Amino acid sequence: MKRRALIASTIAATGIMMTDTTDAAAQGTADKENTLYFDLKDGRVTIELRPDLAPKHVERIKTLVRQGFYDGTPFHRVMEGFMAQGGDPTGTGTGGSQLPDLQAEFSPTAKARFIRGVCGMARTASPNTANSQFFIMFAPAPSLDAQYTIWGRVVSGMESVDKIKRGQGGGGMVPQPADKLIKAQIAADAA
Asked: Which of 52, 84, 50 lies closest to 160 in space, CA to CA?
């Protein structure tokens, strides 16, 4: 019991989040319906979807993936030491899908935090405007905790995310040609 308390306090102090799904992720992510593949120029990224945190956002991601919406979309905003943002077919940061915006599904910090590899949903200043744009964290960003929706986390292939072309200036807009999400698919649908 003392060991669990020590581990829990270490986790709390470092901001590392552990979940019951860690073992499943290490074994190749057993739940294929909640496993997402992003094929990038430098390799495949495997993402564990988190319907336990954001069921409506996970459902939106799955719907758009199955429609082929994300295939060929650019990573239009990429900031060193922060995140890579994609999911906008226009590549401007202002585009989205034809589906209605989603209500926020923010997680309390005791349950999930924005650390390296976490996938969140982009939005405007209004919390209920997430649509199709997403981001993958390069590093922890406590300022985003409980302010943006977490819908997944990278369980393998983060080295491919690290190689996405970086943007310029304070906004991180990527000059053309931007790196693209070549293909997105749910593991259950993979041939």
From this structure: 84
Q: Which of 133, 132, 134, 135 is nearest to 116 (CA)?
A: 135
Cα distances (angstroms) measured from residue 185 to each of 23, 130, 134, 143, 161: 22, 20, 15, 30, 16
Half-sphere exposure (Cβ direction) of 191: Cα atoms closer than 13 Å: 0
The model's pLDDT over 86-131, given as tens digits with 9 standing for 90+, comes to 999 999 999 999 999 999 999 999 999 999 999 999 999 999 999 9
pLDDT digits (tens, 9 = 90+) for 140-178: 999 999 999 999 999 999 999 999 999 999 899 999 999
Domains, the chain, ordered by start: 20-189 (2.40.100.10)
- Of residues 7, 10, 38, the one with CA closest to residue 153: 38
Contacts from 28-33 at CB under 8 Å and sequence distance 24+? 29/155, 29/187, 32/186, 32/187, 32/188, 32/190, 33/186, 33/187, 33/188
Rounded CA separation 123/129 (Å): 5
> CA-CA-CA-CA torsion for 172, 90, 107, 39, nearest 10 degrees?
-90
157 closest CA partner among 133, 187, 178, 177:
187
